[in-house]
Design a protein that fits this description.
It holds the Pfam family LRR_8. Keywords: Leucine-rich repeat, Nucleotide-binding, Repeat. Residues 1-47, 60-73 have a biased composition (Low complexity). The chain is α/β, with parallel strands linked by helices. Among the domains are: 340-507, Alpha-Beta Horseshoe (Leucine-rich repeat, LRR (right-handed beta-alpha superhelix)), CATH 3.80.10.10; 509-672 and 693-742, Rossmann fold (3-Layer(aba) Sandwich); 756-830, Orthogonal Bundle (Arc Repressor Mutant, subunit A); 932-1063, TATA-Binding Protein. The protein is built from 23 helices and 38 strands. The protein has a 10-stranded mixed β-sheet, with no helix packed on it. Strands 1-34-35-36-37-33-38 form a 7-stranded antiparallel β-sheet. A hairpin with a 2-residue loop joins strand 20 (461-463) and strand 21. Helix 21 (967-974) packs across helix 22 (1022-1040). The chain is elongated. It starts with 7 loop residues before the first strand and ends with a helix.
């Protein structure tokens, strides 16, 4: 056994064992875009219900195909069988004398709504229109599609009653823009003709006769290679539907705007390069259909790749299409869009509803739909998260959807002149609102959380001749009353509503506020200002907080708080985990006057890491102090605003990096699991090592998922205050704290109903004598108030949450103690962990060492050396440290037994050894104060080269994101119950058990705040090595559960580790 050094101790005669149980820790504006298109028309490659297959020359499809000279059956539109009548067919103009006359058999025609005949001669192989047909009276619909017609006869003008004419899929002639050989100009006599279909006729030009049909309402010239739509289109002033699919056009003529009745334009399959600026002048254009072929000529693969990566914006679509005032359906299927216009103005129209698909316009910044007729706002409007202006004035809106809370970038909302009866609470989430116009509605009450709209700073004012701020005129408002809301400042309105909300908030409980930050940042001064309402500045480092100060506080509106001011010195960091509480509000406080970006981590980021480790999910508010030291010049105020913005961005960046590292670890684990699945066939039996490795991966994955699901909830606003006489920013900070305290979403536990007998039980407990109560005593007291078991735990935990008592439920072995006088525990620990320890350890200036410790200069010097180098505290030193607490000897003994349960220290049983003087005998050890780095004794007991007769196992705990400084200290305290002898250094622990020896080593990378904990065990018996290592791993795991947000991964080198992995 190695010789003992001053840092070595024996376990013999140790106190009674302590209980240490483990714990685990395509985009459109309408969903009906296809149905709104013409039924018989479809985009390229999609068959529509009305499209028929073209007949081959000299053949007709279906039952109509015959040999030459045989009768050809004409069909009614319905195709139902009817009686037949024979009509002789005249010779075609170019037929030879030997050509036989054909008889055309037609069915009795159906009738239109006007009583006119519907004749269908499609697919008959005709080369001319029979003369007999031209003499038929009362024809309303004539279908000549899918024949071999090259022209229509002049005699077509006789069919005065014709309403619809379909000559699609024929070979109509038109060799130049003035060619009337295919369609004679006499067709202009058909004054009742409303629909003309000449699609798929292989036309290079549109026959000029078409432009003379002034009554046309539908024109289908699709699938003709016309290249250019002539300006004569403007002659068709009554046109409603225009089909230009696959016509090779690249633009539309400006004259199309003369078609004021036009409602639908189909442009599928064209390479559109531009559209005329006159399109918005078409007030009834509802449907415009474009698809991927519309832009294939201007979007090459290289550009498409840039669009997909969002390296360029999709400016290949003319912006004018988004400015059509009556547009209801904009079909942009596969147009490679990656952005849309910023502004959509559909004001001063007759819109009866807003389509749900408006929520697809994600890039919109400004939406103006004022002066229309709609009553309902679709819930999808909440998806427009980039919206900064929304004008819905002068409609008939009755209520706002709750989804409106998604418009978090909204700055201006105009709702003037609607039928609103009330406002949803969700409107209070629009915290960037600077203007909200509610004039001329029927609102009786404003939401009580209206005070959240902090950027609504003015009311009923104008800015640049436009309304600005909050406008409430011409509403029957009862709450707040007119004397409150008739103002130019919103502060009175908000204060009234907040007070009202607090008054109506039932069961508002005391909320704990944790005040964190470096020393000398003004935490203590700020606490006094918040609690007492007046300045109380600290002046010297000796005035700083020793570990923790507690102070109750109540605002003018009777909102109760318990302020916990944490000492900012690193000496207190090992103790933070006892008092940090994820249910509390945490304030990270920094000095505005000394802040620099390069010091961000030291001043703020470090505290965020601590909270991430101990209290994941906690609500955090950043507060800057000493703002009074800045000059009042505008430049200084601007600099303060810039600093607040910088702090906000750096906090976001810090938290983003933290989450990014966690996600990278999770992705790595998922990749390992995927590789594991691929390399192991399904159903195959896994080896023990594989099962254990898989279990470890799943454990790490689950822990990462848990941590990622509980990010810190950092509030976006950085407050600036002064605790000096000016009290600058204090009132605003108090308002913020009140807002937070009554926010049920952030602190649901703070509004629970507490039974009266709980408060009586609390009073009875607080009246008890002694420094702490055992749980058995608490149970006995609770019986008198009929509080038992689970209810008792719930009750005591509630009073711990409000700061009335300390009950460390989650610390194994410590949960049976209740500190009903919290300050006693704080004072006890603050006497051991001090930021001014060097100032305290002054002899003879500090008389306590002579009068209470009975230490002479030499003995004091040795006592001080043992403490500051090895962390050892002798009885004389402990008596001096706790002298001001005025404790009896038996109380001191109680606390010597109690404190090791915190895992902050360990005690060493006193012996009767007379070779050491009393001041040299260690009674208690605080690992935090061990700064010994002389490893000479270690080389004797743990040679670097492992002896041949010893077996060795080693595990490594890697902390790849954060490595808290207190882990080794807690492990050092926890192993005391299982070791026989030990030697401790700053970063290393060597100890022996009855059967083995082990070494714990801490390796830290200070630049990245990451580290590794290495645990190695040696013994002559490998089974013993395994058993001891397993026990030590369980102990380390228990310690790590004190850090709920800490991520680590375990590495077990070697192959004989199956048993260890199974017990993780």
């Amino acid at each position: 056994m190695p010789a003992k050094s001053p840092s070595q101790s024996s376990k013999k005669g140790s106190p009674s064992p302590r209980s240490r149980q483990g714990q685990s820790p395509k985009q459109s504006l309408s969903s009906s875009n296809r149905k709104s298109s013409a039924k018989s028309l479809s985009p390229s490659g999609k068959k529509s219900p009305g499209r028929q297959k073209s007949a081959s020359p000299n053949r007709s499809p279906g039952s109509g195909k015959t040999k030459s000279g045989s009768p050809i059956s004409a069909k009614t539109k319905s195709g139902s069988p009817t009686s037949r009548s024979k009509i002789p067919k005249e010779d075609s103009p170019g037929a030879s004398a030997t050509t036989k006359k054909k008889n055309v058999i037609i069915k009795s025609p159906e009738l239109t709504e006007r009583g006119l005949k519907i004749l269908d001669f499609s697919g008959q192989g005709m080369t001319t229109v029979p003369a007999s047909l031209l003499n038929t009276k009362d024809i309303g619909v004539l279908i000549l599609a899918s024949n071999n017609l090259r022209s229509l006869p002049v005699e077509m003008r006789r069919i005065k009653s014709l309403i619809k004419l379909d000559i699609s899929r024929n070979g109509i002639r038109c060799v130049h823009p003035g060619d009337f050989s295919g369609l004679p100009q006499e067709l202009e006599s058909l004054t009742d003709l409303e629909e003309l279909k000449i699609s798929e006729c292989n036309l290079p030009y549109i026959p000029p006769a078409v432009w003379r049909l002034k009554k046309l309402k539908l024109l289908d010239i699709s699938r003709n290679k016309i290249n250019i739509l002539p300006p004569e289109i403007g002659n068709l002033t009554e046109l409603k539907r225009l089909n230009l699919q696959q016509t090779n056009i690249t633009s539309l003529p400006p004259e199309i705007a003369y078609c004021q009745e036009l409602e639908e334009i189909l442009l599928w399959g064209n390479s559109i390069e531009s559209l005329p600026d006159t399109l918005p002048e078409m007030p009834k254009l509802r449907v415009m259909a474009l698809n991927y072929r519309s832009f294939c000529g201007v979007v090459d693969p290289y550009m498409e790749n840039l669009l997909r990566k969002r390296q360029i914006n999709s400016e290949h679509i003319p912006v004018v299409v988004f400015e059509l005032p009556a547009l209801e359906v904009l079909d942009l299927e596969c147009t490679k869009l990656n952005n849309l216009p910023d502004v959509l103005d559909m004001s001063h129209n007759m819109l009866n509803n807003l389509p749900d698909d408006i929520g697809h316009l994600l890039s919109l910044r400004i939406l103006r739909v004022n002066n229309n007729n709609f009553e309902r706002i679709p819930a999808t409007i909440g998806q427009l998260e980039n919206l900064t202006e929304l004008n819905m004035a002068k409609n008939h809106i009755r209520h706002l959807p709750g989804e409106i809370r998604g418009l978090y970038n909204l700055k201006t909302m105009v709702l003037e002149g609607n039928d609103l009866q009330s406002l949803p609470d969700e409107i209070c989430e629009l915290r960037n609102l600077e203007t909200l116009d509610l004039t001329s509605n029927s609102i009786h009450f404003l939401p009580m959380k209206f005070y959240k709209l902090v950027n609504l700073k003015e009311a009923h004012v104008y800015r640049k001749l436009s309304k600005h701020g909050l406008w409430l005129y011409q509403n029957p408002l009862e709450q707040p009353p007119p004397e409150i809301w008739c103002t130019e400042k919103t502060e009175n309105i908000f204060q009234y509503l907040k007070k009202l909300l607090i008054m109506k908030t039932e069961n508002l409980q005391r909320q704990k506020i944790l005040m964190l930050g470096n020393s000398q940042t003004g935490k203590t001064s700020l606490m006094h200002v918040l609690a007492q309402g007046k300045a109380s500045l600290t002046e010297a480092i000796t005035d700083g907080t020793r570990l923790l100060n507690q102070m109750p506080c109540k605002t003018e509106n009777n909102v109760p708080f318990m302020l916990l001011d944490f000492g900012g010195d690193s000496a207190y960091e090992p103790i933070y985990h006892l008092f940090l509480d994820s249910k509390a509000l945490s304030m990270i406080i920094y000095n505005i006057n000394t802040f620099k970006q390069e010091n961000f981590y030291h001043m703020i980021g470090h505290w965020l890491d601590i909270l991430n480790c101990f209290t994941p999910g906690i609500v955090v508010k950043i507060v800057g102090t000493h703002c009074d030291l800045l000059s009042k010049e505008e430049s200084s105020l601007e600099e303060l605003t810039r600093q607040q913005e910088i702090v906000c961005q750096m906090v976001k960046h810090h938290l983003h990096d933290y989450q990014k590292h966690l996600q990278a670890e999770l992705d790595s684990i998922k990749l390992e699991l995927d590789m594991f699945d691929k390399t192991n066939e399904k159903g195959s039996e896994l080896s023990s090592m594989q099962e254990s490795a898989l279990k470890m991966l799943h454990t790490r994955r689950d822990r990462l998922n848990d941590i990622l699901s509980c990010p810190l909830r950092v509030l976006p606003k950085v407050s600036a205050v002064s605790a000096s006489d000016s009290l600058e920013g204090i009132k605003e900070l108090m308002n913020d704290l009140e807002h937070l305290a009554i926010d049920r979403t952030l602190f649901p536990h703070a509004q629970r109903k507490v039974p009266q007998h709980w408060n009586r039980l609390k009073a009875a407990i607080k009246q008890q004598c002694g420094n702490y109560l055992l749980w058995s005593q608490v149970k006995k007291i609770a019986v008198g108030f009929d509080v038992h078991d689970a209810e008792l735990e719930d009750c005591v935990e509630h009073f711990h949450d409000t700061g009335e008592v300390f009950w460390f439920k989650k610390i194994s072995g410590f949960s049976h103690i209740l500190f009903h006088r919290p300050h006693i525990l704080v004072d006890l620990l603050a006497s051991l962990y001090r930021h001014d320890m060097n100032h305290f350890l002054q002899y003879p200036e500090n008389k306590v060492f002579y009068s209470k410790g009975y230490l002479k200069p030499k003995a004091f010097s040795e006592t001080k050396e043992l403490f500051l180098r090895y962390g050892q505290i002798s009885r004389p030193l402990i008596n001096c440290m706790w002298f001001h607490l005025k404790m009896e000897n038996n109380i001191i003994e109680d606390f010597l037994q109690l404190l090791p349960l915190t895992c902050l220290c360990y005690t060493i049983p006193e012996t009767d050894v007379t070779s050491m003087q009393l001041h040299q005998r260690p009674l208690m050890v605080l690992p935090y104060y061990n700064h010994d780095t002389d490893l000479t004794p270690l080389h004797e007991v743990w040679p670097e080269v492992q002896p041949s007769n010893e077996k060795n196992l080693r595990v490594m705990y890697h902390f790849p994101i954060i490595f808290p400084m207190g882990i080794l200290h807690e492990v050092a305290a926890s192993i005391q119950d299982i070791v026989l002898t030990r030697m401790d250094w700053k970063d290393i622990i060597y100890a022996t058990t009855e059967t083995a020896k082990f070494l714990l080593r801490k390796c830290v990378d200070a630049s990245t705040n990451t580290g590794t904990l290495v645990l190695a065990v040696r013994s002559c018996d490998f089974t013993v090595v395994q058993e001891v290592l397993k026990d030590l791993m369980e102990l380390v795991t228990r310690v790590l559960t004190h850090y709920p947000g800490l991520y680590w991964k375990l590495e077990i080198p070697g192959s004989s580790t199956t048993m260890l992995l199974k017990h993780m």
